[in-house]
Amino acid sequence: MRNIYAVILMALICNSIFSQNSVTGTILDSENNEPLEQVSIYFPQLEKGTISDENGNYEIRNLPTGSFKIVVSYLGFQTISKTINIDKKTVDFSINLSPSAIEMEEVIVSTPFHKLQRENVMKIERASVKELKSNGAITLSDGITNIPGVESVSTGVGIGKPVIRGLSSNRVLTYTQGIRLENQQFGDEHGLGISDAGIESVEVIKGPASLLYGSDALGGVLYLNPEKFAVPNDTEGDINLNYFSNTQGINGNGGFKTSSDKLKFLVRLGGASHVDYKTGDGERVTNSRFKEYDLKTGLGYQGTNFNTELRYNYNNSELGIPEEIGVQNTERDAIEPFQDITSHIISSKSNIYFKNSSLQAIFGYTQNNRLEYEDHEHHEEEHEEEEHEEEGAALDMVLKTFSYNIQYNIKQIGATEAIIGVQGMSQTNKNFGEEVLIPDASTNDVGILATSHTHFKNGDLQLGIRYDNRVIDGDESGTLGDDTYIASIERSFHSFNIAAGYKHDFTDNFTGRLNIASGFRAPNLAELTSNGTHEGTNRFEVGNPDLDNEKNLQTDISLEYKNEHFEIYINGFYNSVSDYIYLEPNGEFINEDAVYLYLQQDAVLYGGEAGLHYHPHPIDWLHLESNFSLVRGKLDNDGNLPLIPANNWNNTLRFEFNSATNLLSNSYGFITLKSFFKQDKVSTYETPTDSYSLLNMGLGTTLSFSKQKIGIKVSANNILDKTYVSHLSRLKTDGIANIGRNINVGISIPL
């Protein structure tokens, strides 16, 4: 650790010695040579950029010497990505942008080399949170279900966790602020646990990403990009308010950010409050209410050869756990059973830039306090003196995680870029409640990796290798002989993984990708040590201390054709998982709860996504979009895997008017039909789910009053108020339907 700080200190000293360069230029429209204002000019490797002024001019100062990729992007124009050599005090980079109806491309952050999507060897799905919210999503976990191949296991509307191509829980790793989000994801009813306020975009790696992120990325990664700092010498602020008719929900956030040439600061405060949701039958689902409070803030320093940032996120959620359709009211305070969850996430990211290489160090600390209050039954004759005393939390767990990720990036060796790195975490879990679901324990990870990206004339090759070791030490809990006794455990898991991918450009418009990657997941504490009733699931779960690593090998193939007005793609995957861990009842009951055992068996998952996007010429404002997602999951004994999403087909008719007028600008509208097919490929202990279709629509615009702009949006989901049950709803076994018609009205005011 001292060596790392010494290197950073040396970089700060050298910062005043190294030459300080700048890049200037003018951005014009190629069709009429008119200047373009508000164009983004960005160096992804340096995490530094600016926007053009009303004359199309820009300047980026304090740049190090070397070769760096520059990305120029503007809505309605083709995104440009080029490598420029900065070897003198002032470099001129002027460019003409060509109009394009294809959406603006963004730099993908979740992959190691930070390239545009069309340059990536891996196919990554990306969506802005603004886009997801425009579809009327109540929560972030609800919003990501608009991404093909991504669904959510839900408990009402307040609790949801991502499912990527049929895999979820600890098989899908969530990253936020550049670090692992650790918040007890083993539980079926443990939600994503992060607010969409202050999140700029979502990236999804659909497939094993253990090479990049280690254990728990066997099924994929949900990568949340925090909002960027303001461009140099600029100050911004905004207020965003939303109302949801079904839950009488109020959601709002406000932010402020300012930057000088070198110092940056931002802060965003948000909150939400919802009553019990109403099904298509008009009945409210008792105790599906929830509240959330969120604070995100950041401080950054941008030098010539060094930059660093420190971010902090506080989140508190009070989440009712619905079990029935009972009392019908619009109260907002949760009733038992409910969860009270508080998370603190602190991260620091620092970069040092050398002439042909760079060093990045990311450190993170997460503390997750999980309180769960059970539905106690009060008996007057036994508790007369205590009837006014407040019940304590049945479950009180504190999870603390320190993580690190240090990578050395060699920018160019001929046509090859390379990264070597070390990652790991140190984690402790402590219990303070009357019940113990998983024992006091510590987990320590360390992994080393190397990956490369080689560019050829018509293709790109990416190779990688990684080794990981995880040690889990669990304490003894309870009294030997009791039903809930948990023995001490000491296990070590290790894995060696490789990945290879190739992207080939058959023509300028036609691209193919082939990726083969192995992955692994060490068993979690619940799977190894559980021995008691899990109140959130009404199961008596019995762990297996002899479980092995889950290991998988996935093959992905994708083909994509894109021109100015038409895009079509098809993605296919085959995922073979060895020693897949799953729960199965043994037919016994303890205290009226069915006993479930953790078992292992080989499994396979396969399927894919296909879609098209058409902009009919010359009416480029009209968009026709369609995508289809399919996934199957089978055990080695020919049984079906549980919680496999139903196949679905989404069709959208959308219009966009991006050219400003005196009063209206950035107007859009859409109508979407989401069709879910019957899911009858179910596990032994699941029931089939009928097919259903949901009709959604929305529109939005930006109003201009003098110099003040106001964004307004209105959307309506499940317009026909259909009564339906999602196959991934945890309330399905209780016969409780999903949310009925929901109208969202939102307003956004930049300050």
Structure description:
With 751 residues, the chain is mostly beta strands. It has two domains: 20-100, Carboxypeptidase-like, regulatory domain (Immunoglobulin-like, Sandwich), CATH 2.60.40; 143-375 and 393-750, Maltoporin, Chain A (Beta Barrel). Helices cover 4% and strands 55% of the residues. It has a 22-stranded antiparallel beta barrel. Strands 9-14-15-12-13 form a five-stranded mixed β-sheet. The two termini are 42 Å apart.
**How many individual domains?**
2
CATH domain topology of the largest domain: Maltoporin, Chain A
Low-confidence runs: 11-18, 378-389
Largest sheet descriptor: 22 strands, antiparallel, barrel
Q: What is the CATH architecture assignment of the largest domain?
A: Beta Barrel
How many DSSP E strands?
Answer: 39
Average pLDDT confidence is 89
* Radius of gyration, taken over Cα atoms and rounded to an integer in Å: 26 Å
Characterize the quaternary organization of these chains.
single chain
What percentage of the residues does DSSP assign to strands (E)? Answer: over 45%
Distance N to C terminus: 42 Å
CA-based shape:
globular
Counting DSSP H or I runs of 4 or more residues, the number of helices is: 5
Report the structural category. mainly beta
Q: Considering DSSP H and I runs of 4 or more, what fraction of the residues is helical? A: under 10%
The named CATH superfamily of the largest domain: TonB-dependent receptor, beta-barrel domain
